[in-house]
Amino acid sequence: MFIQSAARFAAFLVSLFLATALWAQDVNLMSRDSSIAISGTLLSFDGQFYRVDTEFGVLTVDSSGVRCEGPGCPDLEGYFAQIRISGDPTGTEALLPALITAFALRNGYQVEEGAQGDGAPRVMSLFEPEDQTVVGEFLISDTSNGEGFADLMGEAADMALSLRPVTEEERGLAVMAGVGDLFDPHRARVIALDALVPVVSRSNLVNALSLLDLTQIYTGQISNWSALGGADAPIVAHVVRDDLVIGSRVRQMLLPAGAADTVVVHDDYAALVAAVEQDPYAVGLARLSSGGAVKPLGLTGGCGFEAAATAIDIKSEDYPMTRPVFLYTPARRLPTLAREFLRYVVSPEAQLVVARTPFADQGVEEVSFRGQGQRFANAIRHAGDEISLSDLQQVTSVLQGARRLTLGFRFEGGSVRLDAQSRSNVRLLAELLEAGVYDGKRLSFVGFSDAEGTASINQALSKRRANAVLIAVQRSMGEAFQADRLTFATEGFGEAMPLACNDVDWGRLLNRRVELWVSDQR
Fold this sequence. Notes:
Layout: H1 2-23, E1 25-31, E2 37-45, E3 49-54, E4 57-62, E5 66-69, E6 81-87, H2 89-106, E7 110-113, E8 122-127, E9 134-142, H3 145-153, E10 159-162, H4 168-176, E11 188-200, E12 208-210, H5 211-218, E13 236-240, H6 249-253, E14 264-266, H7 269-278, E15 282-287, E16 295-296, E17 298-300, E18 306-307, H8 311-315, E19 322-328, H9 336-345, H10 348-354, E20 366-368, H11 373-381, H12 389-399, E21 403-410, H13 420-434, E22 441-448, H14 455-476, E23 487-492, H15 505-511, E24 513-520
Parallel strand pairs: 6-9, 6-10, 12-17, 13-14, 13-15, 22-23
Antiparallel strand pairs: 1-2, 1-5, 2-3, 3-4, 7-8, 8-9, 10-19, 11-15, 11-16, 11-19, 17-18, 20-21, 21-24, 22-24
């Protein structure tokens, strides 16, 4: 399946390059004194700079210093920015239009949406209200995660909206295409949050499944609902194609060897939800943002772990199948309007807009110590042999009276590198600190670990991770930031507060974390 998908992706990429070559036009850029001439194929123009593919490679030339000759020269007088965005329809249909509309209104523009033909991009035009001058156009194509990346590589899109991270294969293709390293944090912005949830028909008697149950369902080891407390009926499992690519979290957490041949594969979540709605014995892995007349199931674990895809648990990544929503950009200059939009979508103001969509926003919330009661009860019940009563009392002594922030930090598997959502959280926290949100407070970075290894080593490791996150945040802040505006502290409690079972990989991944707690100075 993966080889066929890669072949289709490569063929699609080639077709995009051919289409781009046919669209591009020849230009000749002459210096004002005609002493220097640059000839080539115009790739783009952002209102100030030309990007031209020449015999010397791709060059960026300031339009103020040259005059343009040839069939590809743009109209400098009537220029307005066209920003092309391609990607998953779940985000392009609900999230992007809301953000673009809010961005336009914030800047005093009027918004008009043009009629959309079959297969044509959705066009959202921005106007100056006084004279109806067009400022720019956003052209939104409802494609897929993979096609969004392909459009980005083929210069058919300026941004790619994806509900999953770029894969290793796509990363390599992007580098070859001159788009840059899409693993670079500057190439990917987390603009919203989502979650993958198991869904069934509303008539299904089952209300929760464990991740082990899901693995056994999707690999064919469990094939009847009666084995899970449901009706005596065969299970029909559904999944979206993008969740089966190598490197996806579904493959990492549930299906390292792939899914059974009996699993029904869909191209998008809307099709999956529609299929599950119609079949009382179906189960699917859907996005929380997908909606639909289906019943989401909770997640359980053998050690008493329970989780639901609530906004707070999604923000803190306490829900194991949290998924960031990415906006990827190429390593080239974009029009001014596009750059302003990219700054806006990660702002606190934009997150208020996201909160009114089916997605979860990244707005920071505070959870009281008392509100963590279930976590503390679980920690006491499942404390390992090396965790003493005094260890748990130490955690309580340090955290009592403080509030946990929904900004959490986790690490990629087998690595000290922060994951994508955590890297976004570092930038978000730095902005909040620079804005003075926590002035006069005590901000504690509290590290935890899984239960592998000895308790003393895990305690030291969790403290080092807390220090590493604090350093990353401090490096992200401007040089003008005054460190005495608040107090920073780091703590390490090792394996004392598990969020999930330590006997499975995904549980250990959840337990390796750094939490953020805020309190009044003391």
